[in-house]
Amino acid sequence: MVIANKTTPSSPALLSVPIHQSLRSLLPTNRMLNSYLVFLSALVATQVTALPNGAPLTACGSMKPLHVPFIFAQPNSPFTLTVSSATASVGSPITVTLKSTTAATFKGFLVQARSGNSKTALGTFDVSQGTNAGKTLNCPKGTANAVTHKDATLKTEQSFKWTPPASFTGKVTMKATVVEAYALIYRDISSETITVS
Question: 147: phi > 0 → left, psi -120 to 50 → alpha, else beta; which?
Answer without folding.
Answer: beta
